[in-house]
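Input/output pair, single chain:
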Amino acid sequence: MNQLKQKCRTWGFQFSRTDAVVIGFFVSSALFFEHFDNPLWWLLVIVAAHFFLFCNVFRVRRFFELWWAGIFIANAGLWLMFEKLVWTNVLACQFPVTAAFILTEMRTAYYHGVFARKINPRLTDYLEYRSDIGERNK
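Output:
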């Protein structure tokens, strides 16, 4: 009988080859655009930094990642519409969103990023797929 193998859950900081490739792509793309005087190269840096924070450091759920991306697009779009699209304006509005998502995630039984062993009393439940905390991406 075929049984589904459960992937071993981990906690804390993580970094893989794929992460290195993605971050390398973002950095090289940003440098490429900056070299050719594209004034929006910094957008890639902001996206790459948040990718790293959300996926590797704090390891937030996809739900928050997708909401962050949508808010980021709206944020940058509004500043573009007002003809004031500069990195300081975008970050001033986006940082509170980022902080709120990270802090919200850190208060859940799903949290498995940095310092999870200290701040998540239900970390073992999450790591052992205990059903009483629900599915991860809900």
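The chain has a mean pLDDT of 91. Residues 17-108 form one domain.
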